[in-house]
Predict the 3D structure of the following.
Amino acid sequence: MTLDQLRELCLSFPGATESLKWEDHICFMVAEKIFCMTGESGGVSFKVTPEEFEEMMERDGIVATPYMARNMWVTVQQFNKLRPKEWAQYLHQSYELIRSKLPKKVQNTLS
């Protein structure tokens, strides 16, 4: 996985957009809600399920995202810490977890 591949994957989800926040964080969003972010300091952060959060904390190169761990966000410190299929699975799941919390009216516009 590269940054360009990450961008292509994230922007392939319905209604997904990209924005630069906090000067150096590339954020991928759905309806202005972040589902994935990365920055110059490295690492890619995204939301997982509570069960997966515990499992991922045991993996080398994956840490709890500062300030967001209570919301089940993890940071993969290097692209090679996940296989391409895992990247696709986790990023799509993060998108769906964030999308599912949006108002139904907004969700219906994203199909």
